[in-house]
């Protein structure tokens, strides 16, 4: 697999609160661009995006710390690793995305696929931060 991107952000919320939102799969459309619905059954993640039903697998999980999700569609395999760490009263969230593209004609579309995934998914943590901090502002008023 080849690194597609790594992003991080600091969220003004404790790790437990960020973890709860990160793994509240039915609420993922609030911060995942293009995702209309999401649910988890065991380790299988099923979501609707752009009119398609897609399945992915949770391949690793450390409750409160990290979750790894692998998505395979045709010749494209994407691995997303979400990690959380406490920084005082706040949380540092990191998302690492690795991508493998194989097979003809998928390989020919590699640059387009990489650009599209990066554009769509690299803003997830920023969106998650906005959702959590906006909710926290409402809670404190």
TrEMBL record:
InterPro entries: Polyketide_cyclase/dehydratase, START-like_dom_sf. SUPFAM superfamilies: Bet v1-like. This is SRPBCC family protein. It comes from Tenggerimyces flavus.
